[in-house]
Design a protein that fits this description.
This is CHK kinase-like domain-containing protein. Pfam families: DUF1679. With 675 residues, the protein is of the alpha+beta class. Among the domains are: 127 residues, Apoptosis, Tumor Necrosis Factor Receptor Associated Protein 2, Chain A (Sandwich), CATH 2.60.210; 75 residues, no CATH class; 264 residues, Aminoglycoside 3'-phosphotransferase, Chain: A, domain 2 (Alpha-Beta Complex). It has 23 helices and 18 strands. Strands 9-10-11-13-12 form a five-stranded antiparallel sheet, sandwiched between helices. A four-stranded antiparallel sheet has the order 1-8-5-6, with no helix packed on it. Strand 9 and strand 10 form a beta hairpin. Helix 14 packs across helix 21, helix 17 runs antiparallel to helix 18 and helix 22 runs antiparallel to helix 23. The radius of gyration is 34 Å and the shape is elongated.
């Protein structure tokens, strides 16, 4: 019964199982009764109890058949057990079993139940002779005949012994759970729900059935009905399916895959995409090396450095490349170290769960547009070799392979840049905006969909804002509490999604421009020149690509890279420099906005951009500082963050009051606005 090779695909379990009782009347005349059984996996079943010949044969005929709708299913093997209950002593119950294989031609399983003369004899105890309606009771159990090997000695023994008691199962495990449990073992693809997946995992653990555990893991990644990603992670941790702390320590792809089950079959996916998109027969050979890199900068992705062992030598194949795998699973370690309140953590999980796939796909779409432009050197964009989007058939793995930059470094929030060092970034951003003005309708739609309110709305609630300012104060409570308290007092006045959405229209800007959306220090790569100076090499991570206001990227860039004092002193000069680059790139033709409109955009967007940046200064910087060991270096970095945060807070207050007063003035003058 249990000796099939479990390494092969299991036999289909089309019937499932069904257990029930019927009562059959004792009559002087013989009867032929039809009964209905609930539909099990698209099969309509029926059975009959026939006593028309019982006086002659002394048997009761029990028949099971498929109702043809639309046609019979083939190759279904059944074990059927039947018990006619003896009401006085179960030892005298009549028990019989049968086995049958249904085919297209043979659709009627007949089992003869012996002892009809005893059943209708009231002295034998099969029915209550004093009852008004005299009936005997038939119990039946229908199951698939052949059980596949279960990789579970516990369950195998129970089935071999044909003795599964309630005490063998965990508490609260009802029969319907065990019924579906057996179906999954036999290859039926059932969709699990929030309400039952925990019970399946409990039962799989109790019966030591790894096939069910693996099935649940895949269902959890593909998405269960009603279960959030945070709840998925909680289940994974509870049943030791995945350990986020081990994931944080992963330094090779094997370690990563061991903790992040959605990466199963990643190698096969890579081979296929590389072959199709790079037009090569080369494959990644057995000596290919995968190393986790990125130093924790990626929030919704993991970056892997690949040293390929190409099986075929092609000149266009890279010697090394970076594999970026989009998965919000990786964010758990960052959230864990942030030590956020449950509500804020759940809000962040909601963001990552529902937006990760769209963010990845839009980034891939943008890189495809970059490929048409063929100006990566001007955009400071890495070359992308191949990519895989999320779609209806790929719900778990989005990735792309891109150029690897040797000896590149990131100058994080706790490093202050000089204003002139941003000129190269400003020029690349200006070209990016100028080229974006040429997008056709289809290209525009391919990078449209980013919704700031949908993504961060929960973070910008009353409790969310409190958390943001609490964490800003934690950078240096003595220095920052007073200013943070003053700005926090504005409350939800600080949040104005309508203004952000309609800023271009309100300021008279003719056309939305391409916006990187996440242009801050962590997404700028630097390399060292021969003279020892650092220069910008690449701008990366376009996951938040969108069409919007031209100052959005400037606010995030300046607040993250410059000291507070330098930003305050030089922001206008830097905006003017950017505008010069922009005019040069568009060649003064159809310029969509003026310099003053750009500056006014900066002033109006500053509060929103700073609210997005403050969580970076606090919790995320805390993660980076935790990796440092030199007390002097830690103190120096903390001082930089304190100064940066303090002046951001002061300027938030200033520009909020400016925006509020300006809007009131415009409204008083009768300007049409919804701000």
């Amino acid at each position: 019964m249990l000796h099939q090779d479990y390494f092969q695909k299991p036999k289909p379990f089309l019937l499932g199982s069904y257990v029930n009782y019927i009562t059959f009347p004792i009559e002087k005349s013989n009867l032929y009764w039809n009964f209905w059984i609930q539909t099990i996996h698209n099969i309509n079943w029926g059975f009959t109890v026939d006593t028309t010949e019982s006086d002659k044969t002394n048997n009761v005929k029990f028949s099971i058949y498929q109702k043809k709708a639309p046609e019979n299913f083939r190759s279904i093997e059944l074990d059927v057990g039947i018990v006619v209950d003896n009401l006085e002593n179960s030892e005298y119950s009549i028990k019989v079993s049968g086995n049958y294989e249904f085919t297209e031609e043979n659709n009627n399983m007949v089992i003869e139940i012996p002892g009809f003369d005893k059943i209708i004899d009231w002295k034998q105890g099969f029915f209550d002779d004093k009852a008004e309606e005299k009936k005997f009771k038939i119990g039946y159990n229908m199951v698939v005949m052949s059980m596949i090997s279960l990789q579970s000695e516990v369950l195998s023994g129970m089935i071999e012994a044909q003795n599964i008691e309630w005490t063998d199962l965990p508490s609260t495990c009802w029969f319907d759970i065990f019924h579906d449990f057996l179906q999954i073992i036999h290859g039926v693809d059932l969709f699990l729900y929030k309400s039952n997946i925990g019970e399946f995992l409990k039962l799989a653990d109790h019966l030591k059935a790894p096939r069910i555990t693996e099935y649940c893991k895949k269902q959890m990644i593909n998405g269960n009905g009603g279960i959030s990603l945070k709840e998925t992670i909680d289940l994974a941790e509870k049943w030791s399916l995945w350990d986020p702390r081990k994931l944080a320590q992963a330094r090779c792809l094997a370690d990563l895959k061991a903790q992040n089950w959605e990466l199963d079959n990643l190698d096969d996916n890579l081979q296929e995409v590389i072959r199709d998109q790079m037009k090569t027969n080369a494959q990644l050979g057995p000596r290919t090396k995968y190393t986790i890199v990125g130093d924790g900068n990626g929030f919704m992705s993991r970056v892997v450095l690949v040293d390929p062992d190409w099986t075929v030598s092609d000149k266009h194949l890279p010697k090394r490349f970076v594999l970026k795998i989009t998965s919000c699973m990786h964010v758990l370690n960052v959230l864990d170290q942030m030590n956020l309140p449950d509500k804020r953590e759940s809000a962040l999980w909601s963001i990552f769960e529902y937006e990760a796939q769209g963010l990845h796909n839009r980034e891939v779409n943008l890189y495809e547009i970059f490929g048409k432009w063929d100006i990566d050197n001007l955009l400071l964009s890495p070359k992308v070799y191949f990519s895989k989007k999320f779609d209806s058939e790929n719900q778990t793995k989005g990735f792309f392979g891109m150029e690897f930059v040797e000896n590149a470094i990131t100058r994080h929030l706790y490093i202050n840049l000089k204003p002139y060092e941003l000129h190269a970034v400003l020029k690349a951003l200006a070209i990016f905006q100028a080229e974006g003005l040429k997008l056709n309708k289809e290209e525009q739609e391919s990078v449209t969909g980013y919704d700031l309110e949908k993504i961060v709305g929960k973070m910008f609630s009353v409790s969310g804002l409190k958390g943001i300012f609490d964490q800003a104060r934690e950078i240096n409570p003595e220095e920052l509490s007073e200013t943070a308290n003053r700005v926090e007092a504005f409350g939800l006045e600080l949040v104005n999604f309508d203004m952000v959405k309609n800023l271009n229209t309100y300021l008279g800007i003719k056309k939305d421009v391409l916006v990187h959306g996440d242009l801050w220090s962590a997404n700028i790569m630097w390399t060292e020149k021969e003279n020892g100076e650092l220069e910008v090499n690449k701008i990366i991570d376009y996951q938040s690509i969108q069409l919007g206001n031209p100052a959005q990227d400037l606010v995030r860039l300046f607040t993250s890279t410059l000291s507070g004092s330098d930003r305050r002193a030089y922001w206008e000069k830097l905006v003017e420099q950017f505008y010069e680059y922009f005019l040069e790139a568009v060649k003064d033709k159809n310029v969509p906005y003026t310099l003053e409109q750009l500056k006014e955009s900066y002033r109006f967007y500053f509060v929103t951009g700073s609210l997005l940046m403050l969580p970076m200064l606090g919790p995320i910087a805390k993660v980076k500082l935790a990796e440092m060991t030199d007390p002097k270096e830690i103190e120096e970095c903390r001082n930089i963050l304190t100064e940066k945060a303090e002046i951001i807070l002061e300027d938030m207050e200033h520009w909020h009051l400016y925006s509020r007063d300006t809007i009131k003035k415009w409204q008083g003058e009768g300007a049409e606005t919804t701000l």
